[in-house]
Design goal:
Shape: flat
Strand content: 5-15%
Structural class: alpha+beta
Mean pLDDT: 86
Number of helices: 2
Largest sheet: 2 strands, antiparallel
Strand order of the largest sheet: 1-2
Order of helices and strands: HEEH
Distance between the termini: 10 Å
Number of strands: 2
Low-confidence stretches: none
Radius of gyration: 20 Å
Length: 72
């Protein structure tokens, strides 16, 4: 890890790393995420998006495997 960058920094298109300007971009589209959020909110308001009960409970007798972070 060289440094953390905020989403706002990534959206600007350029960050500074060790004194050098580096072109960057986010992996997701803020515009698309906002569009989907508005569509979902509209469906909820109209009563078209219904939340149902879980189909099956998650198993309680198993352990979750931790995410292994590999070095490059």
């Amino acid at each position: 890890m060289i440094r953390y960058a905020s989403y706002e920094e990534l959206r600007c298109g350029e960050i500074e790393v060790e004194g050098q300007k580096v072109a960057v971009g986010s992996l997701s589209s803020y515009y698309k995420a906002l569009e989907i959020a508005h569509l979902l909110a509209d469906e909820i308001r109209r009563g078209e998006f219904l939340v149902s009960r879980p189909i099956a409970p998650l198993p309680r007798n198993t352990k979750m495997k931790p995410l292994v972070i590999r070095e490059k």
